[in-house]
């Protein structure tokens, strides 16, 4: 009687042959030859370019339409104006997040939380950083023992009143210099009010600070360029989406619709506040999108500039991932209400 030998433990069986016909590629999808195949970004780009070449006559006719000419003009103008500030802001925020130790902030802030809140809020005026950088920095501050109220004030002020953002606002609104002051005042008030609100009503169990920074265990150079790549990809993508939305509002949406919303003081503020939340623009670039929305009042556009850096879709996701979903569900509505109310009042006084 023939005896069939079973493969030894750890040895490949018939279905686990490690030869060429049984290789598994990086994507996990195996073709007839055993090699993995998947659609990646370069392949999608090549396919897109091939389609553009195949239908170039139709594409050329579509781009020659007056509506598309207007759309492309606004889109390119917003991108060209915003990109230098975006790149500079990303480089500076990555340098601060990597090379400035969180213990520096703990030593620099007053021990009393009520005094630490305005000091931390004012620190955002001298420490450039976008929203993508401020959330992990705030998490590091809480982890190092900084009062949560002060860390949250810094989280809101740093992306809103730093020099890069204020300079970009001045460039975007050359004929309205008070817009820079209004943005600074309103954003700082929102940051401090939120910090004091947390100090009075916040609970420790709502806040779940991260146990470890994502850059820990890496060299400073690797952490720096990793932060730069992350922020450029995220912020750049949101900038493109924002520029497309601004161009669409200018070129496609009927003027009567925009005029109806823009002519109503309360509705215009609420519409641009909602737009700021949905677009999720980087704070280094949002001023140029706001400047292109000329149908709306300066107060409504100020609301757009104040709301965006304190609460939008990407910020909500980052805050939930860093501090916990329970925190984000309480923090986001509070900051949104404060940002809309303070920006509307500030605009009424200064603009």
Automatic annotation (TrEMBL):
Enumerate the residue ranges of region (Disordered).
1-36
> Mainly resides where?
membrane
Where can this protein be found? Answer: Cell membrane
Signal peptide range in chain numbering: none
- The transmembrane residues are 41-59, 71-99, 119-142, 149-173, 179-198, 232-253, 265-282, 331-350
Task: Give start-end positions of Low complexity composition bias.
Answer: 18-34
- Presence of the UniProt keyword Transmembrane helix in the record: yes
Q: Which UniProt keywords apply?
A: Cell membrane, Membrane, Transmembrane, Transmembrane helix
| Membrane topology note | Multi-pass membrane protein
- What family does the entry list? Belongs to the UPF0718 family.
In Swiss-Prot or TrEMBL terms, this protein is called Permease
Q: What is the lineage of its organism?
A: Bacteria, Bacillati, Actinomycetota, Actinomycetes, Kitasatosporales
């Amino acid at each position: 009687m023939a005896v069939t030998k079973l493969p030894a433990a750890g040895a490949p069986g018939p279905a686990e042959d490690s030869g060429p016909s049984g290789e598994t590629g990086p994507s996990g999808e195996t073709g007839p030859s055993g090699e993995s195949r998947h659609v990646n970004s370069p392949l999608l780009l090549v396919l897109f370019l091939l389609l553009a070449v195949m239908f170039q006559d139709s594409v050329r006719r579509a781009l020659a339409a007056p509506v598309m000419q207007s759309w492309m003009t606004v889109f390119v103008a917003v991108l060209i104006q915003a990109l230098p500030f975006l790149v500079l802001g990303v480089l500076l925020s990555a340098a601060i997040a990597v090379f400035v130790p969180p213990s520096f902030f703990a030593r620099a802030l007053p021990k009393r939380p009520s005094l630490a809140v305005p000091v931390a809020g004012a620190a955002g005026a001298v420490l450039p950083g976008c929203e993508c950088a401020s959330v992990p920095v705030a998490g590091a501050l809480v982890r190092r023992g900084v009062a949560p109220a002060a860390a949250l004030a810094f989280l809101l002020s740093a992306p809103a009143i730093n020099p890069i953002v204020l300079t970009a606002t001045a460039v975007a609104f050359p004929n309205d210099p008070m817009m820079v002051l209004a943005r600074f005042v309103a954003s700082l008030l929102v940051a401090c009010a939120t910090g004091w609100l947390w100090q009075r009503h916040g609970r420790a169990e709502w806040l779940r600070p991260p146990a470890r920074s994502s850059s820990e265990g890496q060299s400073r150079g690797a952490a720096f360029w990793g932060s730069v790549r992350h922020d450029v990809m995220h912020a750049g993508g949101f900038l493109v989406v924002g520029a497309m939305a601004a161009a669409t509002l200018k070129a496609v949406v009927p003027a009567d619709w925009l005029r109806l919303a823009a002519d109503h003081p309360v509705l215009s503020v609420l519409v641009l506040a909602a737009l700021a939340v949905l677009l999720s623009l980087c704070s280094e670039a949002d001023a140029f999108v706001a400047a292109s929305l000329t149908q709306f009042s300066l107060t409504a556009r100020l609301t757009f500039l104040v709301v965006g850096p304190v609460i939008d879709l990407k910020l909500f996701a980052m805050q939930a991932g860093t501090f916990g979903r329970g925190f984000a569900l309480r923090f986001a509505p509070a900051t949104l209400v404060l940002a809309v109310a303070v920006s509307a009042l500030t605009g009424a006084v200064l603009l």
